[in-house]
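User: For a reading group we're discussing how well predicted structures match intuition. Take GON domain-containing protein. Before you show the prediction, I'll give you the sequence so everyone sees exactly what went in.
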Amino acid sequence: MGNEKLITCCGLYCGDCYGYNGKIASLAGKLNEELDNTNFKKNADHFAAIPFFNEFKNYDSFVDVLKTLKRLTCEGCGDGGGPAFCEIRKCCGEKEIMGCWECGEFKSCKKLNFLNATHGDAHIKNLDVLKEKGVEKFVNGDRCW
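Assistant: Thanks. Here is the predicted 3D structure of GON domain-containing protein, as structure tokens, for the group to look at:
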């Protein structure tokens, strides 16, 4: 059974998110730590000189990405977390609503457009489910990812 506090203002569900469950951040942290502990940088520099392992020339960038992945965590909108820059959450707060499904303008709202690149129209479909079927159906699995 789901948790209402994990519903985002924009119609996503934190329980389905890599940022909320922290798995990617945790694994990236463990890999970065292991690479540091084994001084893998020295090996990467050596491998980079071998044409077969040419990709190791990008090792420093790879480590930067791992460090960034370690920061991909989120407490979720419902508990006051979520990205501080989120215009959607700010808008819902100003309108004193739980989420966009309570607003009659969500289908044409430009604030939701930035989600299209990673979620397609899943958030819009979810907002429809929330509006038409309610929170309980949504948290119990009637949603898109």
